[in-house]
């Protein structure tokens, strides 16, 4: 359906001085394949590259290097027009904030007809009929067809975004925090609408969210990102305790309601800056399990054994019908309980702050 192979995105930004340019390593060596009909959740702290990965998948961000394929075709080897057509027909995107992602000057009808016009779909009458169909699909009354987005409620605006994303009948929807800008009261409605449409239309979905509990609930597979790297891909059904990467375990342990009532796994210090990621494993500076080897190399992907026992090679086992893969020199032993892990991390933290921590001016605080 869609695939990233060794995708890197490096931004160039202003540094401290007038002529300084800094590199921001937003995405590093991302490998990800989305199968038809599956839902892949993306989790990780703020700034880890979730939105960048989403934008790469829908062609809004050109990778610095690597291959992005949609329906088997390398989209960045196409002409701009071919790419627009190919991605537009294959992937739809839903953004976080419909009040900024929708054209404020267009009434709903025009917003929904616009992709059909741009891609030259059908006759004028067929496009108008498709607009009506899309509105019905997302539960918008016909009475709002001629109103501007500003005259709609937040929930209705997001319904328009969803309808627009579906206009060209894509097989994959990328939803980047689709409910976080909405009132709490309508979040569940919009999420349920998305899930219902996904089922009814047989869509694949990439679901980016800070709401880890929801990601676990709606996804088949959960991708954990840290400082621009995909560090683990876990079948949702084995989360949280089935995950093997220390960062996934720590991230989930900080989510209320998922674990037994214990303190979160303690991590050391703040996230390093994406302008100067640590050598080797980017998580090593905060990991209670880090040793010298973690500073030397980023571990290759390793498949988790389906029986929860010993691990196989990179193309080996699976877990719960979904591939389970992690990149860690010192994975958490399968079956380690939450309380045991917290105790281990607490005991290890003072003794092992990790080799070669970056200088303090290399790190930025996170909220
Ligand atoms: N256009 C840009 N120019 C420079 N740096 C950028 C740009 N876009 C993103 N970044 C940086 O790239 C890194 C990844 O950003 P990204 O928005 O993908 O993270 P994220 O995980 O989606 O964050 P959040 O959860 O806060 O939305 C961050 O360090 C961010 O500051």
UniProtKB/TrEMBL annotation:
NCBIfam families: oligo_HPY (TIGR01727). Residues 298-367 are annotated as: Disordered. GO terms for biological process: peptide transport; transmembrane transport. Belongs to the ABC transporter superfamily. Keywords: ATP-binding, Nucleotide-binding, Transport. Residues 309-320 have a biased composition (Gly residues). Coiled coil: none annotated. It comes from Knoellia subterranea KCTC 19937. The keyword Nucleotide-binding applies. The lineage of its organism: Bacteria, Bacillati, Actinomycetota, Actinomycetes, Micrococcales. The keyword Cytoplasm does not apply. One of its GO terms (molecular function) is ATP hydrolysis activity. This is ABC transporter. Residues 4-252 form the ABC transporter domain.
């Amino acid at each position: 359906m869609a695939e990233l192979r060794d995708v890197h995105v490096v931004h160039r930004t202003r540094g401290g001085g007038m002529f300084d340019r800094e590199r921001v390593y937003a995405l590093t060596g991302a490998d990800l394949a989305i199968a038809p009909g599956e839902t892949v959740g993306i989790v990780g702290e703020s700034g880890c590259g979730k939105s960048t990965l989403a934008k790469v998948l829908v062609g809004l961000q050109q990778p610095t290097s690597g291959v992005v394929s949609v329906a088997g075709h390398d989209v960045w080897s196409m002409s701009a027009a071919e790419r627009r057509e190919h991605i537009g027909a294959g992937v739809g995107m839903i953004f976080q904030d419909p009040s900024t992602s929708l054209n404020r000057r267009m009434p709903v009808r025009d917003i929904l007809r616009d992709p059909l016009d741009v891609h030259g779909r059908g006759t004028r009458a067929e496009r108008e009929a498709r607009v009506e169909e899309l509105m019905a699909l997302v539960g918008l009354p016909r009475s709002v067809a001629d109103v501007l987005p500003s005259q709609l409620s937040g929930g209705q605006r997001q319904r328009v975004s969803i309808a627009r994303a579906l206009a060209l009948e894509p097989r994959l929807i990328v939803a980047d925090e689709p409910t976080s800008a909405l009132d709490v009261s309508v979040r569940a409605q919009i999420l349920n609408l998305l899930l219902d449409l996904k089922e009814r239309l047989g869509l694949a979905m990439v679901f980016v969210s800070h709401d880890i509990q929801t990601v676990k609930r709606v996804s088949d597979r959960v991708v954990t990102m840290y400082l621009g790297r995909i560090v683990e891909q876990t079948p949702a059904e084995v989360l949280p305790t089935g995950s093997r990467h220390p960062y996934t375990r720590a991230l989930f342990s900080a989510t209320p309601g998922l674990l037994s009532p214990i303190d979160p796994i303690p991590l050391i210090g703040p996230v390093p800056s994406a302008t100067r990621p640590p050598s080797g494993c980017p998580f090593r500076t905060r990991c209670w399990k880090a040793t010298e080897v973690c500073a030397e190399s980023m571990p290759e992907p390793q498949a988790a054994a389906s029986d929860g026992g010993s691990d196989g090679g990179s193309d080996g086992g699976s877990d719960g019908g979904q591939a389970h893969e992690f990149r860690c020199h010192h994975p958490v032993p399968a079956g380690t309980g939450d309380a045991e892990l917290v105790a281990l991390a607490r005991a290890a933290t003072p003794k092992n702050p990790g080799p070669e921590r970056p200088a303090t001016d290399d790190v930025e605080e996170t909220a």
